[in-house]
Amino acid sequence: MKVIRDLIGGTKPSPIELPYNNSLSADSSTTAYKGSLAKKMDFDDIDHGFGYHCSYGLATEGENFSGILEEEHTASFLPEDATYDTTLHKITPCFPSTIIRAEYSQADAAGTANYDTSGVVVAGTATFTVTITTADTMIGGWIYMLDGAAAGELHYIINNSTTTATTGSNWANAVASGDTFLVIEASGCHFLDFDGTWSGIKSEVDDGSKANTVNGVMNYIEAPGMPFGRLERSKHEGLVIPNARFYHDFTIGYKNVWVTPTVA
User: Fold this and answer.
1) SS3 at position 27
2) pLDDT beyond 90 at 48
3) How many CB atoms lie within 10 A of CB 8?
4) In whole angstroms, what is the distance from residue 40 CA to residue 54 CA?
5) Distance (Å, rounded) from C-alpha 252 to C-alpha 240?
6) If both were cysteines, with which of 35, 51, 111, 213 could 254 make a disulfide (CB 3.0 to 4.6 Å apart)?
7) What is the C-alpha to C-alpha distance for residues 133 and 184, in angstroms, rounded to an integer?
8) Cα-atom radius of gyration of the chain, to the nearest Å?
9) Largest CA distance in the chain
10) Phi/psi at 234 (nearest 5 deg)?
11) What whole-number distance in Å separates Cα of residue 133 and Cα of residue 223?
């Protein structure tokens, strides 16, 4: 992930050095990747002197979000270590007005898959059969096939029930349940599913699994021969686009440490 700009200040905030330890209760030896989200440790955790920053996913997940780590972390120390200081790492602070850009990557920074499976399509229809918790939550989003007979097909979603998503055009090819795909959320989405390294977006077709609160701003596409640009139904619906990559801009105002820190 990276910071694009700030809606109030215009330019993006500059990185600052902050104490970082990727554990809430021990000296850290766990890698945290460049571009991953960071938070400040829970305000009610007084066992280690308050005050240092850590991975966004440590308990409580997302509470006291502080920014984006700008360099890889491999080791650090608790504030009470007898010999060493807590390591300083560069973090770009993020405010509720800071626009973040993240990729819908096929794997996270540690190599774990980020894509979806278990969708089925009959060629020549506009019905994508898949399990979804809540109707209408996929409207305005996109489905992009990564492999199978329909590899490269990109379709805009105009409706969904709890068992199917309806696309804006018919599928040229069939989709089998083992084929892999990405779901790109509607530009103004309220929820995303951050990946396991907190450095990108995990594709998640089911709204019941999208746990991260955001204020979506815009989604984008780029591909060989296709410059980076906004995803548009009038331009991209129904195209076959090999090796496409997708991005989302959003803000995180939820429990932001610089504005609304959670005390307990």
Assistant:
1) coil
2) no
3) 9
4) 6
5) 33
6) 213
7) 17
8) 20
9) 68
10) -70, -20
11) 31
Letter for the amino acid at 43? F
How far separated are the first and last CA of the chain, in Å rounded? 28
CA dihedral 35, 41, 43, 48 (to 10 degrees): -150
Q: Which residue is it, tokens 């305000």?
A: 43
The two structure tokens encoding residue 214 = 């955001």
Q: Select from 220, 221, 219, 213 the least CA-distant residue to 251.
A: 213
Helix (H) or strand (E) holding 184: strand 181-184
CA distance 45 to 263: 10
**Domain spans, the chain:** 120-245
d(CA 80, CA 206): 43
Quickly count: other Cβ atoms within 10 Å of residue 178's Cβ: 11
Q: Which two tokens stand for residue 120?
A: 């089925």
| Centroid of chain to Cα 216 | 11
Copy the structure tokens of residue 220. Answer: 């984008």
Residue with tokens 């990727």: 22
Element (H, E) at 99: strand 98-103
Model confidence pLDDT, tens digit, residues 157-197: 999 999 999 999 999 999 999 999 999 999 999 999 999 99
Within the chain, residue ranges assigned H as helices are: 233-236
Q: Compute the distance between CA of residue 149 and CA of residue 152 in angstroms, rounded to an integer.
A: 9
Q: 221-257: buried (b, 16+ CB within 10 Å) or exposed (e) per residue? A: bbbeebeeeebeeeebbbeebeebbbbbbbbbbebbb
